[in-house]
Amino acid sequence: MWNEHVTAALLGTERRDPPVLPGAPAEGGDGAGRLLDQAALLTVRRRAGRVPSAAAPVPVALAPVEDATVVPAQAAARLRRILRGEQIRVLPEWLEAAAARGLRVPAQLLPDLLERGRGDRMLRPSIARASGRRGVWLALQNTDWAYLVGAADDPGGGPEVWETGTRNRRVAYLAGLRRTDPERARELLRGTWAKEPAPDRAAFLATFGHGLSADDEEFLEAALEDRGKDVRQLASDLLARLPGSAYGERMAARARACLTPKVHTVRGREQTWIQVDPPQAHDEEMARDGVPFHPSGSFAPRSGGGPVGTRAAWLREILARTPLSTWRDLFGLPPMEIVCLPFSAVAGGSGGSSPQNDSEADGRDVHIGWARAALTGRDAEWARALLKGGVMVDEPEALADLLSVLPQGERDAAAADLIRWVEGRPDLLRVLERVPGPWTGALASAVVALLTASAERPTRRDEHLITQLCRLADQRLDPSTVSRLDVLVAEQGAAAPRAATELIATLRFRDEMLKELAL
């Protein structure tokens, strides 16, 4: 039929009548019009009746069996509301609370959740912990969600993942293996190290944070010579965390050359001082061990006033990478007494506070170096000494970072003391941003007291503080404090800050949310 229509079109309808198409009008109009009408109808019929080609189905592995229980129905309904935009800022807490209870996200909500993580990198670790095995399986079916494979502990599959998987899957596989068999993981990486691109080498080396031990030292020392800057930096950071390493001994030797115990006579009494003499020059060995020529923060203003010079920045870097046991051995004192020792500068040289002063380096640089070492080594005794010794009065942000090192039972009281100490100072909000949640106990009481005091002073500065503080508190403050905030709003009446009212609504939402997950 189609060929006959083509022939009529080529010869012309005056010489050849178009064939009659069943179901189409055969009369009326001119021949050319009928030909075009029937050709259009025939085209639609041909397309509608086309038999699809037989293509081999793409094999898709079945979703793995879940070993985690799905969240209760009420919690799932709340998650659906959150994903639609209601109180979206509490999503990380919902996910972490579910994962902490061994629960997982319902399968029907996974696509929306994975899509949310696609645009928010900060959410990805929480999504990985709460999405269960099916979340990873689903991510393997959609390249837009492949980020979850790298964030999850189990990338799916067996040893072949290391040979044929994407970088994200290989990183996840190596991270999992580091937790169970660090030696096997190290040997796998050693076998392919020379062929891996620099970004991949850095990503793989970062997994050594799991199961780090003295057995990794040789590999990490070799990585200090790597041509990739990020690889070298990661290797030095990992070696700084490794007790008893040759790296730590090299740093300790440099640090002892910078800080020397000296005895001064003050008012007829002998007193030990710390003589500060920052490095005079930078060399290749320092660069190899991760002390850059221009450390981050060089020439930035100090909290107390003057700039941080290059030599002072070198000193901070060296002290941050020096084992803290170095100072107990050198001074023969516990950390609390060491951090309270006064400082002096080398004669005619640089560094220090009273009795000689120089802007190149001072006691603050030493304390910041020690604080960074305590943070890296998770040393609670040194963190406690620096927080309670009253020696870092101009560095409250550095002190706030140390709160996470303290045992859980000590954090609230220490954080509350820090908040009361910096109240009224411009860096209060920056300090609070660094105080991890949840804010409970003494810390919660200090925050509520701060909000109450600010609400009673109707100045523009206090209004700004209330707004920013409420924004921080809505995710970190213990929901049980809502009753105390109710009193504040009731007393203020119509004059109550809008931010405080919104904070109360969020705290109630979070309180209900956590109770649903506990059912």
Features:
mainly alpha; two-stranded parallel ribbon; three-stranded mixed β-sheet
Explain how this protein is built.
- The chain is mostly helical and 519 residues long.
- It contains 28 helices and five strands.
- α12 packs parallel to α14 and α17 packs parallel to α20.
- The chain is extended and about 130 Å long.
- The termini are far apart.
Shape: extended
Largest sheet: 3 strands, mixed
**Order of the strands making up the biggest sheet:** 3-4-5
| Beta-strand residue fraction | under 5%
Layout of helices and strands:
Elements: H1 2-11, H2 31-48, E1 69-70, H3 73-83, H4 91-100, E2 103-104, H5 110-119, H6 124-130, H7 132-139, H8 147-151, H9 160-164, H10 167-180, H11 182-192, H12 198-205, H13 217-223, H14 229-240, H15 246-258, E3 259-266, E4 269-276, H16 284-288, H17 310-320, H18 325-331, H19 335-339, E5 343-345, H20 363-377, H21 380-388, H22 396-402, H23 408-422, H24 428-433, H25 441-455, H26 460-476, H27 482-492, H28 498-517
Parallel strand pairs: 1-2, 4-5
Antiparallel strand pairs: 3-4
Quick overview:
The protein is mainly alpha-helical and 519 residues long. Helix content is 56%, strand content 4%. The chain has helices at residues 2-11, 31-48, 73-83, 91-100, 110-119, 124-130, 132-139, 147-151, 160-164, 167-180, 182-192, 198-205, 217-223, 229-240, 246-258, 284-288, 310-320, 325-331, 335-339, 363-377, 380-388, 396-402, 408-422, 428-433, 441-455, 460-476, 482-492, 498-517, and strands at 69-70, 103-104, 259-266, 269-276, 343-345.
